[in-house]
Amino acid sequence: MSISADTLRGHTDTILLTQLLHGDHYGYEINKRIQTQTGGKYGFKEATLYTAFKRLENAGLITSYWGEDGPGARRRYYSITDEGRRRQAENCQEWLETKALLDALIASEEE
Amino acid sequence: MSISADTLRGHTDTILLTQLLHGDHYGYEINKRIQTQTGGKYGFKEATLYTAFKRLENAGLITSYWGEDGPGARRRYYSITDEGRRRQAENCQEWLETKALLDALIASEEE
DNA sequence: CGAGTTACTTCATCTGTCAATGTATTTCTT
DNA sequence: AAGAAATACATTGACAGATGAAGTAACTCG
After folding, report:
1. Distance in angstroms (rounded) separating the CA atoms of residues A27 and A40
2. In this structure, are residues B78 and B20 in contact, taking their beta carbons and an 8 Å threshold?
């Protein structure tokens, strides 16, 4: 993974919430999707992933349930709550501000 | 400060190095400059600021010296090293990648 | 059957942030 | 001139997120 995690720290929750916007998914799947979407440049470590899910659930931003019988039986699916959607939108907005801010502060800076 | 520090965590060093690209400055001054540049939206807490300087100095990315006597309180000036410049450029590049990555992951995501 | 993949879980540790506290000088206000 | 506020730096303990490591267990494919 070529991007250091510290640069993305604080965005974990937003990334995960975003993945759940359009339907329920399970952890391993989500991580694979992220890796695909970033061309293999980024993915969560397992510990990071599952502690994040726990954090989000404790905060009431997602709920979870075990999959039905079959090959999905040992998969824990996550579902975003209304509050989760609200939070995702907020964080999305904050990302725009953060981007502007950092662009201003890190720019090659001619001045 | 309207932007949460966690969203910027990991960028502190880059921000500080950037401030030193065009000359030596002291901590308090740098922080004021950042607050000005961000329209008051962001600034470092003192503990964060000075521990960051210490970290950068230990890493050989900056050096420091006490300012000459004169008006005002005693000031410790910081100077960026060659390695610091190299690192700043690297981090700058990484920021571009991070931005693209997060834009892809956090986007409203139609698909 | 055995190796590799899928899938989740927990724990100890590391690092960066920050509240709190302290020191000391200078400048502004009245 | 006294007192308040700003300037300027420093340290400490606590906390939160990320991670390495280790573990468990079922499925899949040759």
Report:
1. 17
2. yes
| Residue B111: inside a domain | no
Give the separation between CA A8 and CA A72, rounded to whole angstroms.
30
Encode chain A (111 residues) as per-residue pLDDT tens digits. 467 788 889 899 999 999 999 999 999 999 999 999 999 999 999 999 999 999 999 999 999 999 986 666 689 999 999 999 999 999 999 999 999 999 999 975 444
- A104:B4 CB<8 A: no
Q: Give the CATH number of the domain where residue A30 resides.
A: 1.10.10.10
Q: Do the Cβ atoms of B37 and A105 come within 8 Å?
A: yes
Q: Which residues of B touch A9 (CB under 8 A)?
A: 6, 9-10
Q: How far is the CA of A51 from the C1' of D10 (A)?
A: 35
